[in-house]
Structure formats: C-alpha cells, structure tokens
Amino acid sequence: MTSAGSGLTVLQTCALSLLVFTGASQFALVGAIAGGGNPLTAAAGAFFLGVRNAFYGLRLSQLLALPRAVRPFAAQWVIDETTAVALAQPTRRSVRIGFTVTGLTLYVLWNLTTLLGAVGAEAIGDTDAWGLDAAGPAVFLALLAPMLKTATERAVAGAAVLLGLGLLPVLPAGVPVLVAALAAPAALYIEGRRAPKPAGRMKADNDAPREDR
Amino acid sequence: MNIWIAIGATAVGCYAVKLIGLLVPVGVLERPLVKRLAALLPVALLAALTAQQTFADGRVLVVDAKVAGLAAAAVALLLRAPFLLVVGAAVVVTAGVRALTG
C-alpha cells in the first residue's frame, strides 16, 4: 500500500500484493528498495520474513486436514490473519470456513486497497507528509502485541529490537533482521536449561492449552 | 528490471515456504521444540522490523515524527482499540507532528 511512494510502479505494487500476498514480506521488500538497498538483498530479506508462514502451515495442515490436491491452492492464503482466525475455531468445519472466508476476504480487499493506494499515492505525491510511512510499523506492532504474553516472548522481542537496531548501521539491508531472528532459538535454549526448575515447568503447563488450539 | 526480478524471486520464495508448511508430515510438528520455535520466530521478526521501520532511515538511526505515531499506536493497543484504529492513530499522529514541526 505504501510502496508507490518508494520507487515502485503501480503495476509492480499490484503484482506484489497478487503474487506475494504476505504483508510483512511486501513491506520489507518495498522498505529495503526504498532505503536504497540492492533489490536482490531486499528479496532475500522479504523471503526470510515469509518463512514464518511455513510454521503457520505446519499448524494449519493439522487443523485443516486438506486433501493433498487442494493444498497448493490453499497455500497462498497461509498468512498471519488466516492462521489467527483458523486457530480460534472450535471444530474442523469452522476452521475450514474461517480459513477460507478470511483468506478470500483479505485477498480481495488487500489487492483492492493496494490498487487504490498505489493509484492514490501517485496522485498524492509525498506519502510521508500524510504520515503513511508510520502505517507499516504500526501494522507490525498490532500483529506483535497479542503475541507478547509471557516473559520469554517479551525477552525475545526486546533482544530482537536491540539486535535489529544495533546491527542496522553495520550489516547489509535485510541481514540484521535475520540475525535478530536468532533471539528465538537463543531464548528456547536458555529456557531449556532452566526447564528442570519447578517454576519453568509450571509455565510450560500453562502454555500447553494455548499451544494446542 | 532488477525490481521485477526481486518481485519474482520474492513471490516464488514466499509461495514455496507457504506450501512447504502445509506439506510437512504432521509428526514433525508434534515435537514441542518445533512448536515453541514456530511461536517465537514471528515475535523476533516482527519486533526487529517494527523497531527498524520506526527508527531507521535507510541504514541510519533517526528519531522523527514516526516515533510519536508508534507511541500513539502502542497506547491504542493498550486500550484494546481495533486494528484499523491502531494503524489510523499512528498515521494521524505522525502526520500531525510533521505538520506542527515541519
């Protein structure tokens, strides 16, 4: 939606939403290109951001139990929002309905708003003056907030922020985010070493029901 | 042209990882470590990206109107505002601060 303000054409902007259809990767690609980064490095960063959709797919494939032939068509809709909606459903039937309705609705709306945004942005000119450059990080923040439930998640987020900002001036575009992602396995390693303690085990038990949904 | 190649590479790569997740055998996910990592990776990625998009101008760290906008978004989130209102608050406050200071 904000990409037309950063050097991409309307066609390129719309192609992104149609073909990539995973917001964080789109924003990352556009942001890195706008920031003067190498387009291929930008693509690497965007790709890595899309990797989390593989983990969503792991969970969704259990819940949806789709026939193999249908999976290639369902795959394009494996994103944050469809996962969030699908995981909240009580039965397989409602999981499938939730996934399909959310996927279809978002796919149509996302591409329509991309087109309107891209055409509109060309008419508006400088999107920064309208504060639209704050929309990207605000979207991330809104997606992130519900995930920060326990101390582990907050610690991972804090460490990732420090790594992402601290390494930004010294590493090529896209790479600091890859390094920041290491905060996740690092936190698991530390958590694993603490696991034998009673407190650690209690927390794991509390987490269990939420994980299963 | 380079941008088109980047778009193509991103599209193919992002579709591939989406599909891979759906095709992985169910048994792999049963491992608790895989579950935890799957839950924590988006947290790290989104946190780093949020911070970068708020404070980074290219590869330089800056504090500008966006910081006020993101603070407004954070307040809206604490007040359990709906998604669009959170994003709207960030946009409006950022534009407002720019109009006042610029």
From TrEMBL, chain A:
- What transmembrane ranges does the database entry give? 97-118, 130-148, 160-190
What's a Pfam family in this record? Answer: AzlC
Location of this chain's protein in the cell:
Cell membrane
InterPro entries reported for this sequence: Brnchd-chn_aa_trnsp_permease
Ranges in coiled-coil conformation: none
- Please verify whether the record's keywords include Transport: yes
Which UniProt key words apply to this protein? Cell membrane, Membrane, Transmembrane, Transmembrane helix, Transport
GO CC, alphabetical: plasma membrane
- Give the UniProt record's GO annotations in the biological process aspect: L-valine transmembrane transport
Q: How does it sit in the membrane?
A: Multi-pass membrane protein
Annotated family: Belongs to the AzlC family.
| Protein name per UniProt | Branched-chain amino acid ABC transporter permease
Q: Which organism is this entry from?
A: Streptomyces olivochromogenes
UniProtKB/TrEMBL annotation, chain B:
| Keyword vocabulary terms for this entry | Membrane, Transmembrane, Transmembrane helix
InterPro entries listed in its UniProt record: Brnchd-chn_aa_trnsp_AzlD (IPR008407)
* A Pfam family it matches: AzlD
Q: Where are the transmembrane segments?
A: 6-25, 37-55, 67-97
- This protein is called what? Branched-chain amino acid transporter AzlD
| Classification of source organism | Bacteria, Bacillati, Actinomycetota, Actinomycetes, Kitasatosporales
